[in-house]
Write a structure and sequence with these properties.
It comes from Pedobacter westerhofensis. Keywords: DNA-binding, Transcription, Transcription regulation. InterPro entries: AraC_XylS_family_regulators (IPR050204), ExsA-like_N (IPR054015), Homeodomain-like_sf (IPR009057), HTH_AraC (IPR018060). It holds the Pfam family HTH_18. The chain is an alpha+beta fold and 270 residues long. It folds into two domains: 161 residues, Sandwich (Jelly Rolls), CATH 2.60.120; 94 residues, Orthogonal Bundle (Arc Repressor Mutant, subunit A). The chain is built from ten helices and ten strands. Strands 1-2-9-4-7-10 form a six-stranded mixed sheet. Helix 2 runs antiparallel to helix 3 and helix 8 crosses helix 10. The protein is globular, with a radius of gyration of 20 Å.
């Protein structure tokens, strides 16, 4: 189905955020292909950040822990067209179109320069969001195939991402958590991303860190925030979202409780 708002079942949707900002921690199961129409989206990952604006096109590989901060800008809401590549559709596509794997392979977000094929494709989707009824399945299938075909024409390495159907395995928990602790995911999601059930995740975590996940995560996030405030000269209002806290007041309270002084003591106002 096609959707106008965030919808976990939609394969083609128009995301529109009119509030001051929208923040979410995600690890999407499926790859997503997006065009930013208006507003701004900041993507914070463990080792880098991205900033996307109007006209930017990106491919977001699945199962990557990321913080998304979406903001209206210049009087316009945040608006983006997003296509989700579900595994079943990708398998069906590649069954008739054998993948070409290359030696270059990474899981980073891919960005694409403006191109007539991209402009034509996203423009063709806009009228569908005015429909009062669901978009016919046949059209969804055709448009998703078109998107994959365009990406394959523009990116010789894209099959390494889209045609990789390997299952997630149990990975090194310590390495994963040290790399991704700043993302405010629930314990079930952390467990899933490390290839564990919730019970196994908590058990393995206790064995590795000798404490509970909740206590360890709060401490690590506060230490990260402290470094950003003291070493990088950032303000509390700039760091709390990127270090796993839901709001500024909770961050300030937790910071003072842990360090014995408020973030303002470092010379910045909240």
């Amino acid at each position: 189905m096609a959707g106008r708002e965030q919808n976990r079942y939609a394969e083609i949707l128009l995301s529109c955020i009119e509030e001051k900002y929208f923040k979410d921690e995600i690890a999407l199961e499926h790859h997503s292909f997006a065009r930013i129409i208006s507003g701004e989206m900041k993507v914070v990952q463990a080792d880098r950040s991205y900033l996307f604006g109007p006209g930017d096109t990106l491919l977001f590989p699945g199962n990557q822990l990321s913080t998304l901060i979406k903001n209206p800008k210049n009087g316009l809401p945040y608006k983006a067209i997003v296509i989700f590549f579900r595994t079943e559709r990708l398998k069906e596509f590649y069954a008739g179109n054998p993948p070409h794997f290359t030696q270059v392979n990474n899981d980073r977000i891919k960005t694409y320069e403006k191109h007539p094929m991209l402009e034509s494709f996203f423009t063709s989707l806009v009228p569908y969001f005015d429909l009062e009824s669901e978009l016919p399945e046949k059209i969804i299938s055709v448009k998703i195939e078109e998107a994959i075909a365009i990406l394959r024409a523009l990116d010789p390495n894209i099959d390494n991402v889209l045609a990789d159907f390997s299952q997630a395995e149990k990975i090194n928990l310590v390495e994963f958590m040290e790399r991704n602790y700043m993302f405010n995911m629930n314990m079930e999601k952390f467990g899933h991303l490390t290839g564990r059930s919730l019970t196994t995740f908590k058990r393995d975590f206790k064995k590795a860190f000798n404490t509970t996940p909740q206590k360890w995560l709060v401490q690590k996030r506060l230490e990260l925030a402290h470094r950003q405030l003291s070493d990088e000269g950032r303000k509390p209002i700039e760091v709390y979202l990127e270090t796993g806290f839901e709001n500024l007041s909770h961050f300030s309270f937790a910071f003072k409780k842990h360090f014995g002084y408020s973030p303002a003591v470092l010379g910045f106002k909240a």
